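Intended use. Records like the one below are meant for learning the mapping from a protein sequence to its folded structure. Do not use them to infer anything beyond what is encoded.
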Amino acid sequence: MAEGIKIIANNKKAYFDYFILENYETGIELFGTEVKSVRMGHVSIKESWIRIERGEVFIMGMHINLYEKGNIFNKDPLRVRKLLMHKKEILKLDSKLNEKGLTIVPLKVYLKGSLVKVEIGLARGKKNYDKRETLAKKTQQREIEKAMKRSMR
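Structure written out for the chain above:
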């Protein structure tokens, strides 16, 4: 793990359901109480997705719990949030999205120093047989690790 990075939320389901082709680090536009809630780890990106509209990138369905001491300053937990990327990156992503079967998924939310960052990935959906293959590889790797632990004793 790199210096000064603390992972807040990880989307394991994305790695199971998609082949991740490219990763991008983006900033996210948040309000004060949302940042405090994120720092406390009250974030979920399991059911979220990303959309590009009018040259801007938005994350939909990302759930940030209400900050308990936030009173009137709290925002809607499921509101649409803008992701901050360079124009060239957005145009590149948008052109790649026109290919059949490609989508953008959020992979993780983390703190980098004092900033909240979202890692997104350009992804191609897996078929059922690909998912079974992934499960078989994980099971095989687990068995190898167990055998190595036993042989070390």
